[in-house]
Amino acid sequence: MKQNYKKNQQINRCPMRQPSKVMKLERLGSFHQSRLSFTRQLINELKSNKTQFEISKWDIDNNGFGNAVIKTIFNNSIFSLVVFCHSINDEERSDRVIAEKWDMTFSLFKGVPSNIELDKMSKNLKIQELGRHLSKQLTLSRANKSVRIFRKVLDALSNGKQPSKLDINNIGYLVRTTAVYGNGKFGIGDFSFDSSKSVLNKPFQAEMLTVYLIRYFSIELINFLAEKKGGKKSVKLSNKISRHLGVGNATGLGMAPFLINHQELIHKWINTRETAISRVLSIKSINKNTQKQILNYIEQAYRYTSQWNVDDLIQANRIKNLNLDLKDIINCDELLNLLNKDYPLKSLNDYFKNKICMETEEILHSIFIEPFPDIIDDLTNQMGSVEKKSVVVGYNVKEIIEIIKENYKWALSIDVNSSDENYFFWYTSQAKLEPRIGVTNKDDGYEKQLPFDISHQVQKALKILIKLPKKMTASEAMINHPEIRNIVRRIIINKTSPYSEIQDNLVGKQMRPIDLLRCKLSFFGASKYDPKSDLWTRITLFQGAPLPHQLQEESSCDWLFPYLSDA
Amino acid sequence: MLTVSLNEVYSETYKALRSVGIEWGLAKDCANLSRWLVNHDYYFLGSVLKTADLYKEKKLSTSIKENNLNKPLTSALMGLLLVEYVSANKIIWKGYLHSPKFLLASMGLIAQEQNISLVLKNSKNSIIAYTNNQKLYVDTNIFNNLTGYFFMETYEFNNNCNPLSLVQNQRLEVSKINKKCWDRLSSMAFETYVPESEASKSGAGY
After folding, report:
1. At A473, is the secondary structure helix, strand, or coil?
2. Which residues pair with A439 in a beta bridge?
3. d(CA A175, CA A104)
4. Is A12's pLDDT higher than 70?
């Protein structure tokens, strides 16, 4: 019998975790995909809206070059993925964002493009950032074939065989994107958050739809090419293998500043996640069916981490510990007893929290919230934000100082004069205008650094503020000292959005940018993080997600941890 | 003419102003005000470039107290701070303003976000603009965006206020702007970037 978990929650039984615990880089860098992730939200939307998919143009030649358009009819709105496939040499294929040629270029177009619009896109999409794009374009993207697997899969299919599951699992995708731009970049349409709109309204849904359609295209393309190459003896990719194929993505520092620049939005994402965790930990009891689901997800997580192989030594070690922890949890004699207790998920959490690593703590949180769509999914409506441009009036100097002393203890504890705490600086590179980090006193560009030294700014502002009359309004303090406007704005936002600030020194020697990337990517729904250094990582999106024709199947939305049996 | 997005208006303005040494917070305010102006079908680009030039030449004031006709307060950079200050301190501010349309944008923003009622008058004490119930109303017959002497204060709305034209969002699509001016803004923004080096490549998927 279905249990009503809304009534079963004891509100505030388990308070949300404090920002001082959550907003540390190491923890943010341990987050995993969850049912709150944007890929999951998109699939849920596509399913509930009974979205239709149609390949409305397929002008691809036998070598895989040409143009295609995939139309989606989504809640009475039409969006088209426009694809151009290009011929490039192997040596021109690169993961670098600064590459200039790609196997494929894409754009998600609002409506159906006319021939004139397609012609314009044919000239501009292939040059990506160097082109000027149409306002009806919602995204701009490009991808390369995975040289490790694309030809192997094509050869297998054209010879009537399915590709090796081991290869499929080791790589996880046929194509890998190196950027998916949205929100007004290079002339494409602006994203306008409007809670009254229902289509692609939640954060990053246009980008996620783009990637989902790229995945669909990549599978259609390989099947098409196999048939052209192998004729009657060729076969199509099996549903099982197709479903285990996602889209790869190589992600570098480009996305890191987003977490710093969009305080209110980041607060909403983290606050939503913490609210979800608090809600499920506050459930008084769960029925046998839900217990079984929890145990299944722990098993799935174990299998998923067993197939998660990376070269990076730090991440490999973390995965190993995570995998061992999950095995210990599965084998724990107390497990069922814990799930039968009052507040079972809290009991389980409390029992293991000092025995497991941070990666395991956070994967358990993803597991805990998975079986409870009725008390979790409404939260996804709170993850978008219209960020205020003005600074909220009404604070005085005394109150700002109090917020600093209460919420920015972490910043005040940093020795901002130490060379280790000034080790890095962030800047924007001339190459593709991407954010980068440099080493202070070693690399060029320090004088053009971005204002990510939050702890330093807080300490400077405090020195100014303590000399001002306590009752002076914050507005007057800022108008007399415009140099503190940037940080006072952040401090005031943090008062009402406490998860808006990463509580570590972002220019300190201990900072690992990969943690910032991982946090954001977990909200995207990325899996199989494969760091290539502290500065960039490969990931997979939509691995395990239903294909368009599988969306209406009963268990189509159940794909938390992608796993391929017999791989 | 060139077509640009609101996001590009914001980001290029922000960076361009940084290139002439304007504080982060003020550059951000001006970028937001520029986006507001574009979104309400006002020109912004020439005024931003002029503001940057005059700022470099020290011909604009950033002081709410020390300003005059020859060195007026820059509303592009200080407009949002000024409306916050007037709103928070509930005072009457008076002084010389350069490019006052940025003050209109500031009034529009604070009205929309914080529902504060403000009134702006010219030297003849005629109401140029006021905000009420999150909306901005402007007397388009009087307002001319020229440097001049202004008064601004908070007020309690009553129905005796002159009915002025409501300023509404014109569009959320792209804006057509002068390419030559845009190229200049972009070249200023480019000055904030650091040339490619081995260090910068390391974050680019090498």
Report:
1. strand
2. A424
3. 9
4. no
Contacts of B112 (CB under 8 A, 6+ apart): B134, B135, B136
Q: Report which residue type is found at A13.
A: R
Q: Work out the minimum CA distance from A305 to partner chain B, whole angstroms.
A: 25
- Using a CB-CB cut-off of 8 Å, the residues of chain B touching A535 are 202-203
Pairing verdict, β B127-132 and B135-138:
antiparallel
Contact predicate A477/A397, CB 8 Å: yes
CA atoms of A60 and A269, how far apart (whole Å)? 40
Rg (C-alpha) for chain B, rounded Å, is: 18
Q: Tell me, yes or no, if B89 comes closer than 8 A to chain A by beta carbon.
A: yes
Closest CA to A208 of A186, A191, A221, A187: A191
Q: Given a cut of 70, is residue A2 above it in pLDDT?
A: no
| More confident position, A511 or A97 | A511
Judged by CB atoms closer than 8 Å, whether chains meet at B174 and A135 is answered as yes
Question: B164: alpha, beta or left, given left = phi > 0 and alpha = psi -120 to 50?
Answer: beta
> Best of B60, B81, B154 to disrupt the A interface by mutation (most A CBs within 10 Å)?
B81
Chain B (130-189) residues lying within 8 Å, Cβ to Cβ, of chain A: 172-174
Mutation site, B6, B7, B66, interface A, largest A CB count within 10 A: B7
Bridge partners (DSSP) listed for residue A204: none
pLDDT band of residue A5 (cuts 50, 70, 90) is: confident
Cβ proximity of A329 and A353 under 8 Å? no
CA A148 to chain centre: 25
At A246-272, the pLDDT tens digits run 999 988 888 889 999 999 999 999 999
Which one, of A101, A108, A113, lies nearest residue A143 by Cα? A101
Give the separation between CA B59 and CA B72, rounded to whole angstroms: 8
Q: What is the pTM of this model?
A: 0.95
Secondary structure in 3-state letters for B136-166: EEECCCCCCCCCEEEEEEECCCCCCCCCCEE
Query: Does B85 contact A489 at a Cβ distance shorter than 8 Å?
Result: no
Report the distance separating Cα A514 and Cα B135, nearest Å. Answer: 44
Q: How many CB pairs under 8 A join A and B?
A: 185
ipTM for the complex?
A: 0.94
- In eight-state DSSP terms, residue A241 is H
**pLDDT exceeds cutoff 50 at B205:** no
Cβ neighbours around B65 below 10 Å, total? 10
Q: Is the pLDDT of residue B206 over 60?
A: no
Please state, in angstroms and rounded to a whole number, the distance separating the CA atoms of residues B34 and B106: 10
Count CB neighbours of A98 within 10 A.
Answer: 18
Q: Distance, in angstroms, between B154 CA and closest chain A CA?
A: 13
- Please tell me if residue B193 touches chain A, with a CB cutoff of 8 Å: yes
**CB nearest B204 (choices: A97, A189, A443):** A97
Closest CA to B47 of B79, B25, B70: B79
Q: Where are the alpha helices (DSSP H) in A420-530?
A: 454-465, 474-480, 485-496, 513-524
Cα–Cα distance measured from residue B97 to residue B99, given in angstroms and rounded to the nearest whole number: 6
Helices (H), A125-164: 150-158
Return the structure tokens found at A214: 């790229």
Is-contact B162 B127, C-beta < 8 A? yes
Nearest to B174 among A185, A187, A443 (CB): A187
